[in-house]
Amino acid sequence: MDRVLKTCLSPALDDNYLSKNNASTQVLYLNKRILSDFFQNENCWAQYEAVMGPNPSRFKNNPQNPVENVSWNDAQAFCQKLSQITGKTYRLPTEAEWEYACRAGTTTRYYFGDDANQLGDYAWYSGNSQKTTHPVGQKKPNAWGLYDMSGNVWEWCEDNWHSSYENAPKDGRAWLKNGNDNRSLLRGGSWYSDPNLCRSAYRCGYDRRDFNFYDGFRVVCGAGRTL
Fold this sequence. Notes:
Blueprint: E1 8-9, E2 16-20, E3 25-29, H1 32-35, E4 37-38, H2 45-52, H3 72-86, E5 90-91, H4 95-103, H5 119-122, E6 154-161, E7 180-187, E8 203-207, E9 215-216, E10 220-221
Parallel strand pairs: 6-9
Antiparallel strand pairs: 1-4, 2-3, 4-10, 5-10, 6-7, 7-8
């Protein structure tokens, strides 16, 4: 199980980080203790099968492809069962943690810079995916060694959906008060997305019960906090 569920610890840089959205900004106070252990890769369907049994993915040609066709509720069930099996705490990242880890210290449109022409070196997206997912970890990672933070599959976050960052917690915890209790966040874009949707700041809300063949997740190991 430990071999299948290998993790990667993201290093801490500045405690203060400015997270940029299309219409608003939020100052996030994050460090390695709050960020915790991010999985180096998106969860592949071999991992999902090892924990949950049946594989819901549409693309089953390679067990190292990211699991997809999973709802937020499915991802939560995976985290709960994995926690029971291992005795460790696994969970979805908060939106703040996700963007902090994705950017890896950058403030550019993408974690590799502003030039969308370089996206194909780092991500599977509509321009190079051939309309399918691909095995995790094949493209270049970000500066902290995390793969596929853009493209391949959208990644669920813990928080309720809020249309802006106004009144959001300033310390990176999950924002579960107010907002829409039936919707959560997807980040990162997918194999189906155009370059604009793969930007580090792009965010969208999705019903927690819904699933699609471009929606997946990545977990973190370590207890989180909520507000």
